[in-house]
Amino acid sequence: MNPLISIAMKKTLVLGASLKPSRYSHLAINRLVAKNVPTVAIGLRAGVVAGVDIETESVPFEDVHTVTLYLNPKRQEPYYDYILSLKPERVLFNPGTENPEFFEILRKEEIEVEVACTLVLLGSNQY
After folding, report:
1. Which CA distances in Å does 108 have to 33, 103, 116?
2. Burial 47-85 (b: 16+ CB within 10 A, else e)
3. Strand pairing of 52-55 and 47-49?
């Protein structure tokens, strides 16, 4: 990853976004927006969190730098090709989303795999 890329340039897709305020994906959207990170989201239900529209379909977003996952490994499978089509620089696997099968697929496509908590990375300025 290029350390010269500012956080504001790291457009992020939150995959597994939730409208429920108690969910980590919801908190992540709020924190990403608070840090001025361009944010897009896909979830089961349409709605808006912190001004970000939650889509329910695999929208062909452009210039996605990071995909942060809030889906368990089985729920990730239908999104493999979609995520690859976005050509992100990295995919963040939040706690509980670790998926060695997908790690391998991503690495073959030279996409950085990071097992880390988005909230912790943002809170510690390591995003």
Report:
1. 31, 9, 20
2. eebeebebbeeeeebeebbbbbbbbeeeebeebeebbbe
3. antiparallel
The answer to whether the CB of 66 falls within 8 A of the CB of 92 is yes
Supply the CATH number for residue 91's domain: 3.40.50.720
Look at residue 27 in the predicted model and tell me its pLDDT: 98
Residues 6+ apart with CB under 8 A from 75: 16
Number of domains in the chain: 1
5's tokens: 């890329």
pLDDT score of 30: 98
Residue with tokens 């089509």: 85
* Domain with 37 in it: 7-123
From the first residue on, what is the mean pLDDT of each consecutive set of 10 residues in the chain (127 residues)?
A: 62 98 98 96 98 98 97 98 98 98 98 98 93
Query: Which of 109, 99, 119, 102 shows the shortest CA–CA distance to 24?
Result: 119
| Report field, pTM of the whole predicted structure over 0.85 | yes
